[in-house]
Amino acid sequence: KAGVTQTPRYLIKTRGQQVTLSCSPISGHRSVSWYQQTPGQGLQFLFEYFSETQRNKGNFPGRFSGRQFSNSRSEMNVSTLELGDSALYLCASEEGTQNNEQFFGPGTRLTVL
Amino acid sequence: AQSVTQLDSQVPVFEEAPVELRCNYSSSVSVYLFWYVQYPNQGLQLLLKYLSGSTLVKGINGFEAEFNKSQTSFHLRKPSVHISDTAEYFCAVSGASGTYKYIFGTGTRLKVLA
After folding, report:
1. Quick one: pLDDT at residue A21?
2. Domain residue limits at B25
């Protein structure tokens, strides 16, 4: 099976712009989670989507949003970008059962200038 | 509140020496525990996981970890490291039965010296 794919791999934006990141999970996986990784804060959970519904949510402002499509692909959107949003955004997929084993994609490196 | 503590931010070790990376957690509910490795400019790769059963868990690349419920620890060990093990290692905890998603430790950078 193909692994988790994320597009684009690198992105440069300016403050105030918005950005959309995409994640395609492993075939058959119904859950997609998003994480933000920064040197200062480490890995922080953004949200999880399961069967097109947000199932869990971390402590991020409303500028961060997501959605999941019927084919389980997910997008994450960040509006009104701030310098502090510069980070590696990781997507992880799992079957959706209770074992919580997640498979991570390579990430999208977002730089906000 | 749930939390994960990785006490060592960096661990230097000589090649072929043993290594232990420490992880302690706090949780009010039953947990699943994971160790992931991240190589530069890559995502996270699962090394091993504890869901239930035997407290000694063996993973890929010769790594193992032991779940100690009384000490709320899940330390990662390898008897003999290689240069290629140089990477960042993350411990993570999630609530059993989906009570909460992954909480990651701050990571330990393992540097294997020749």
Report:
1. 98
2. 3-113
Mean of the per-residue pLDDT values for chain B?
92
Q: Which residue(s) pair with A10 in the sheet?
A: A109
- Residue B39: C-alpha distances to residues A81, A90, B59, B63, B92 (Å): 28, 14, 17, 16, 17
Q: Which of B24, B9, B3, B34 is nearest to B108 (CA)?
A: B9
pLDDT band per the 50, 70, 90 thresholds, residue A33 = very high
Residues with Cβ within 8 Å of residue B70, at least 6 apart in sequence: none
CATH number, domain of B46, equals 2.60.40.10
The Cα–Cα gap between B26 and B3 comes to 5
Residue from B2, B10, B102 to probe the interface with A (highest A Cβ count within 10 Å): B102
**Do A27 and A2 meet the contact criterion of CB atoms below 8 Å apart?**
yes
Question: Which residues does chain B have within 8 Å of residue A44's beta carbon, measured at their own beta carbons?
Answer: 104
Give the model's pLDDT for residue B28.
84
Nearest to A90 among B43, B97, B103 (CB): B43
What's the number of domains chain B is made of? 1
